[in-house]
Amino acid sequence: SWPQGHFGLDPVDWKSRDAQDFKRKLLSLPISESPGAAGRREALGLKVEAQQDPSGQRVLPGPVASFEELLPALPAYALAALKASGASAPRPLQAQVLPLALSGSDVVCHARCSGGGRSLALLLPAVAHLEERKGRSGRADQEEKASPAAVLLAPTRELVRRLHDEASKVLKDSSTGRHREGVWSACVFAGERKEDTLKKLQWSPPLVIATPGTLVDLVADKAISLSRVIFLGLAEADRLLAADYRGDVMSLSGRVQPDRQVLLFSAAWSSKLEELVRAVCRHKGGARVVHITSSLPPEGVVPSGGKAEGRLEGKAECKPAGKPEEKAGAEAEAKADSKADAKASAALALDQELVVYDQSANAEQHVPEKDRRLVEHLRAIDKTENGSQVLIFVSHGPDAENLARKIAAENMKVGCVHPGRRRESRLWSVDQFRKGKLRFLVTSEAVSRGIELPTVSHVVIYEMGSLEHYIHRVRLASKGHGGPGHALVFFEYRAKEMLFAGQLVEHLAALRRPVPEALRKIADEVASGARGTPPRDER
After folding, report:
1. Region 128-141: what's the mean pLDDT?
2. How far is CA 298 from CA 95, 295, 420, in A?
3. What are the recorded GO MF terms, alphabetically (predicted)?
4. Which sign does the torsion angle of CA 369, 371, 372, 374 carry?
5. What is the number of structural domains in the chain?
6. Any idea what the Cα angle at residue 297 is, between residues 293 and 302, rounded to 5°?
7. Which candidate, 246, 181, 189, places its Cα nearest to that of 215?
8. Which of 189, 181, 185 is nearest to 159 (CA)?
9. Nearest residue to 144 via CA among 218, 229, 251
10. Which of 14, 101, 295, 320 could bond 125 through an S-S bridge, CB–CB 3.0 to 4.6 Å?
């Protein structure tokens, strides 16, 4: 067995607790929309849809052509940092997101961009609120150590670090602003020592950037309080959902006062994401939620003179996400990525066993057969004495928990790692696995990237995700323990991931691996249109 963790935090009863006052509108709204605002949005490839402001305000600020237009809402030191970095004008997303956010709206930005300036579009409104806040950061009470005013959530430690690096640049000279002690950020994520994490929070940073699971653990341990948070930002919200962080995000949202500002960025759109938006964008007094969709490359904003200004980052591409007419382009992009990944993986020599299930009829009917195959496979490995260890991948935390219990019921030593478990529980399982005291470890997608163990000889992909995830997972067993390793892979067709079959066929063919006939049949039917199109909310 293993130490038991928690699956959420108790929400705060804000009716019986005083909320933190904050100034929502830092930038004055115009009385009427500026001439040419609609044309500028169209030229920048931006579509804006807004709910009516509870105060009756219907006007939306148009895109700005310079960061100076955001003064005095944007601190002078932040503007100086932007100029020092070579950013003379905002990117298209920044041009519209920043005035909307600084004028008090919640902003939901739906754009598939690479290097489109989303990091700064998320950070700068947070910095503006931190500069405007009264008083200084400190302890919420004697039991809770840190009490930030702004929190940014991201799905991976890499993105957390990147946001922290950007924040450090913007906040470098913040002591010249309203707060003499300055404004600073701290980043927390799984994989580092608890002592190091607590040290980062020792002086109560005003801005905390974190992965959701780690922040839930810190709140549960009373190492941090969210009672003073007035700004909540979600980076790559679609990946947060894909990594099974929905429960953690909802738990954290319940600990933040209802009257707060929310910014959310996502590359894809779905009904689940829409539900998340409705849940986190809730207010005591009401606020307008503005949706922005981007469909053009993120070039520098073109001022009235027609000459494009410089940009903070290098050249980037931005594609519309979730549009049916982009299906052909998405397929071409997926095939190109598949070829690149296949070439990079050609050296792998591990033994792969690919079992194909067609779930077009019933998504649950194959579970007993999969469990039977899995248990037989693990029993065979458990009887060996060569120290073989197995990583078993599933998509979601509850699935990891259920599967680990089934394996434990067969008297096999198994650990379980997923965001629903407390940090100590996750670290204990990984440590026991590293020491060889556990031969089997079940892990969900949310934490699998953080487990790089050279002693792993076998991998089981119980539930497949993307081609990228598949390649990464089988690579973990490529070195193996005394051999090339082995991967048992369960492929299940789902209409929501209908293109994946073709990508996998192409990948296996590039590696000169046998392609199961059942997999090829599914891929051919999808390519010919014999199998239907994806559900509308997943396009």
Report:
1. 70
2. 10, 9, 37
3. ATP binding; hydrolase activity; nucleic acid binding; RNA helicase activity
4. positive
5. 2
6. 95
7. 189
8. 189
9. 218
10. 101
